[in-house]
Specification:
Length: 461
């Protein structure tokens, strides 16, 4: 297994997605003029500068904001995931839960709302958003409790809803998402700097678009509920609210053309694209021929694993005639429909499914990991596998298929490493960034290698 090379490429991708540098590259101050992605803001025109934000990478973004603006910041509050704090001086950090919201997030969001209510026309609001903000920035709509919202989010995640679908619903049961924060800040001027963690960098999907016009409707949200047959499972208060919205009894989320969006500028400062480009450069330095497969890997994690494995096997066969080793790069965000009772995340599930697809084939290795360092509700970022992983597990008395069927990839890799003495689990701790997931495949010429036979007690089944 080429674990060392895979980890080296992965680290280069993480470095390129650093939220601190993402803000520093797009925000600067010269005298009284603040430059935000080339647009000038004369700070003499503002009596107050406040900083707000939410997300896993927002603490590092706030560090950059403090370095640039320093004492010009009058007040600031950001909400970060537990254990993601970095040293700050002017901006207050509140920690809260992800992926399911908690009371801490509720109270912290209330603080941000109160801060924005004081904002006037001579206030400049710098809003910092990164992945995870949809859970951290929590203010349920009237009639919806925090428990209702937690139950709703849990049901959608377990059903395998993708981020677009999940956030279409969350925006319509929230007082701050789907443009709600921009409306609350008006008539202040708002600059929103965004570290994207969604496919296509859609402004109204990242962090559920608190400062962007919403392209979805109550009808779209209700369609998601019907698609996953959740009508009888979601809290009745949520179901009633969505129906009232469809009937026009309550107003929909703010759309493009609303007056307050005229005073908002949304800027994408970083995304998976920068990470994959850095990975491509490091790949070439290590002697592999890089190939970008996609920046939009999505769908069920197990389906994505089959897709990636088929590409790797095709490439491996072709290498008999053309022998240069390849590195295939993919970025995106898959989903997992939870049918078992195990513990895992989409990156680990993809890795385990991939290991089964290439079982016995030497010369293929895969790293599948989240860029935030936490895959699902676990302390692992992801895993590294190759053609030997599944056969070795069978030899150790483990059945990878059973773990996969039970959505128990985390337990599989924990036990596999314990029994084998290998280090397939990737444990980075919080990385401070979040730009979706990364898959790195290394494919070598198999001409000098011999595929191994499955043990009689195993097999792909």
């Amino acid at each position: 297994m080429m674990r060392t090379e895979l980890i080296e490429i992965y680290r280069s991708a993480l470095k390129a997605a650093d939220p601190y540098h993402a803000v520093m590259n797009h925000l600067s101050l010269s005298g009284d003029i603040l430059y935000a992605a080339g647009v000038e803001y004369d700070l003499k025109a503002f009596r107050r500068v406040v900083v707000i934000g939410a997300g896993k990478g927002t603490s590092l973004m706030a560090q950059a904001a403090e370095e640039i603006l320093n004492d010009r910041i009058d007040e600031g509050i950001i909400i970060i995931k537990y254990a993601h704090a970095r040293p700050l001086h002017k901006i207050v950090q509140r920690e809260a839960a992800h992926p399911l919201p908690d009371e801490a997030g509720l109270h912290a969001t209330a603080e941000i709302r109160e801060l924005l209510k004081k904002a006037g026309e001579e206030t400049l609001v710098l809003c910092l958003l990164s992945g995870g903000a949809s859970s951290l920035l929590v203010a349920p709509a009237e009639g919806i409790t925090l428990d209702h919202k937690r139950a709703l989010t849990d049901l959608l995640l377990s059903a395998g809803a993708d981020i677009d679908e999940l956030n279409a619903v969350r925006k319509h049961v929230s007082a701050v998402k789907g443009g709600g924060l921009a409306e609350l800040a008006y008539p202040a001027t708002t600059i929103t700097m965004i570290l994207s963690d969604v496919i296509g960098d859609k402004l109204d999907v990242i962090a559920s678009g608190p400062t962007a016009p919403d392209s979805t409707s109550f009808r779209d949200a209700l369609h998601v509920i019907h698609k996953y047959s959740l009508e009888g499972k979601i809290p009745s208060s949520v179901f009633s609210l969505l129906h009232l919205g469809v009937a026009g009894v309550i107003p929909d989320t703010p759309k493009s053309g609303a007056v307050f969006f005229q005073k908002v500028r949304n800027i994408i400062v970083g995304s998976i694209r920068q990470s994959v480009e850095a990975a491509r450069v490091r790949t070439a330095e290590l002697g592999f021929e890089p190939q970008l497969l996609t920046l939009e890997l999505q769908g069920e994690a197990q389906d994505a694993a089959r897709f990636l494995a088929s590409k790797a096997l095709e490439m491996r066969s072709a290498m008999i005639a053309r022998g240069s080793p390849r590195c295939v790069l993919a970025g995106g965000e898959t989903t997992v429909t939870v049918r078992g009772t195990g513990k895992g995340g989409r990156s680990q599930e993809l890795a385990l499914a991939f290991a089964l697809e290439i079982a016995g084939r030497e010369g293929i290795s895969l790293l599948s990991a989240g860029t935030d360092g936490t895959d699902g509700p676990t302390d692992a970022a992801g895993a590294v596998v190759d053609g030997i992983t599944a056969p070795k597990a069978w030899e150790l008395g483990m059945n990878p298929q059973e773990y996969l069927a039970n959505n128990d990839s985390y337990t599989f890799f924990q036990k596999f490493d314990e029994l084998s003495g290998e280090n397939t689990h990737i444990m980075t701790g919080p990385t401070g960034t979040n730009v979706m997931d990364l898959q790195i495949m290394l494919v070598e010429n198999p001409a000098s290698r011999r595929d191994i036979r499955f043990p009689s007690s195993g097999g792909k089944g």
